[in-house]
Amino acid sequence: MIPICIATVRGAGLPVLLESIRQYAPEHPVYLRGPESVIEKFDAHLKIFGKPRSFGEDYNEVIFAALKDYDEVLVANDDIVLTPDSVRLLMEDVGIIKTMNSVRPGPGWVASRSDAARPAQNVRTREGDEKLNFYKYPSEGLIRVAQEISPIFAWVSKDAFGEGFPPLNWYSDDVHCQDARRRGYVHFISASYVHHIGSNTIGFNAQKLHDEAMPWLKEHRPEYVAAWFGS
Description:
Number of helices: 8
Distance between the termini: 45 Å
Radius of gyration: 17 Å
Helix content: 25-40%
Shape: globular
């Protein structure tokens, strides 16, 4: 069964996340990375002890550890909660996408929707004038193509993950998505949903996170800086 990879700094949301996995996806092994003082008390198939670095570096470590044993993984933020259908719907959509002849060499990221995410993944974003139907917008049940996704809860294959995330907190997912698209991969948003606290790990100081990422971006991906920020 596909493993769920989690990296954490403070572990504030871990008890609820891990309980939701135990309740709704107990067959999926958990690969957990974080400070020993934070994660030692939690059960996991594999625990990797380490001090926090960046989102990209921490998740690379735990994802690559899982990819030694598996060809695909589920990646989860440490501040989400699964619903009873989160994993089932995500994997059903992955299966559908894999049958699409137009998706070659294969799907890139396939990501769940959430209540705290970029607009394309956010369930508060509706298409056109659609109305709520049984508490949901009809478009929430559709698979859609995306330029970038946030791997709040998402599937990725070993081939699509490639060399992994850059060593950044902010923009690590944007860079990875663009790099994967350059290699021919297409990213998708699933009908799956998870509840997300939002920015519980890296914080809410957007300007600071942006400023910290810019030197690396300007040195290693100046073309992305030009496209995203116009300079």
